[in-house]
What we know:
This protein is of the alpha+beta class. The chain contains five helices and five strands; from the N terminus they run E-E-H-E-H-E-E-H-H-H. It has one domain: Enolase-like, domain 1 (2-Layer Sandwich). Helix content is about 30%, strand content about 25%. The longest helix is centred in the last third of the chain and has 11 residues, at about 105-115.
Amino acid sequence: DGVPRVTYSEPEVASVGLTTASAKAKGHDVVELNYDLAGNGKANILKTAGSVKLVAQKNGPILGVHMVGSRVGELLAEAQLIFNWEADAADVAQHIHAHPTLSEAMGEAHLALAGKPLHAHG
């Protein structure tokens, strides 16, 4: 489902694609990564908390992007492109995201999923 979804609340909740449960139900071998916005400079400036969760086919494309945090709805355009173009984490990880921006969270999450984290991720 490539239709972006956002709930304008505080914090915002935004997503595109499959959840982990729905991806597994469709037979995908799933890996996921949660990136904490505490590692993002712009989120610190905005004094916001939240996360970016990536759901991916193991060694394959991103199946879903799910975000919670102030202004994460603004990240949906990139998330939708990643999902609809069936990009994998390495495809996204090679692109530079401006600093300090919330979009860096998208880049850093994909770097971590591609095995090249800039910061520690749990």
